[in-house]
Specification:
Layout: H1 7-28, H2 30-50, E1 71-72, H3 74-87, H4 90-109, H5 112-116, E2 125-126, E3 129-130, H6 138-142, H7 148-156, H8 169-188, E4 196-197, H9 198-205, H10 210-216
Antiparallel strand pairs: 1-4, 2-3
Helix pairs in contact: 1-2, 1-8, 2-8, 3-9, 4-9
């Protein structure tokens, strides 16, 4: 990942997000805080893109990043499960559950190095688009690239970790500051602040109510999910 564009701006944005999120968790609970934090992240990315001379190459139908390892926070996994329950037909939900389980088996058995090059199709990629777009995690909301060729090369050569993807500095800075501020606020509130690999986290909470129960008691949410990175 590239360095942030302006360290002072980063720290100021992180502190602002932390203060807002701490108050929202206290006043409204983690579900509302997560929803509003995602909305602020989207708005911040849009503002940063509008003020930049460089623009993301991302568009609907561009799915290369949907084969990368994705880290999710516990509450994001629970929000995805709720979205599937409320918006998917029963046959589509079964398809997703099967795809998640298959991906999770691979990721649980893979080394950390192999997880980075696994190139597994996201269970929610449907007809070239994200079928949980409204509930997608922060990593997916903030990931972008200026040069489409880098994404294509990375997809075609998953073992080549030297391929660089270019980012808009202002967008990267805004996203990382917002994410770090929100994560710190959740930890302050006593919730599990770990990041988990998405398939293994979803596989566990799609079929078991205990991860949510543990999370709301301030415990580590998952027992079988693998680490998802930063």
């Amino acid at each position: 990942m590239p360095p942030v564009a302006d360290p002072n701006e980063f720290q100021a944005a992180r502190s602002t997000e932390y203060a807002i999120a701490v108050e929202q968790v206290r006043a409204h609970g983690w579900r509302r805080a997560l929803r509003d934090s995602h909305a602020r992240l989207d708005e911040g990315q849009a503002r940063a893109a509008a003020s930049s001379s460089e623009q993301p190459a991302c568009q609907r139908g561009c799915w290369y990043c949907c084969y990368l390892k994705v880290g999710v926070r516990p509450e994001e996994a629970f929000a995805i499960v709720a979205y599937v329950r409320d918006n998917f037909t029963a046959p589509r939900a079964r398809e997703v559950r099967a795809a998640v389980a298959a991906n999770a088996r691979i990721m649980r058995q893979a080394s950390r190095a192999d997880q980075l090059t696994a190139t597994l199709k996201c269970a929610f990629l449907l007809d070239g688009a994200c079928s949980i777009y409204a509930a997608r995690p922060a990593r997916c909301r903030s990931y972008h690239a200026v040069n489409l060729r880098g994404c294509q090369d990375s997809y075609a050569q998953p073992d080549n970790l030297d391929i660089l993807t270019s980012f808009v500095p202002a967008m990267f800075t805004a996203a990382e500051a917002q994410r770090e501020g929100y994560d710190a606020a959740l930890r302050t509130a006593g919730f599990d602040g770990a990041v988990y690999e998405m398939n293994t986290a979803l596989d566990e909470c799609l079929t078991d109510p205990r991860p949510l129960q543990r999370f709301e008691r301030g415990k580590a949410a998952f027992s079988r999910a693998v680490p998802g990175g930063s």
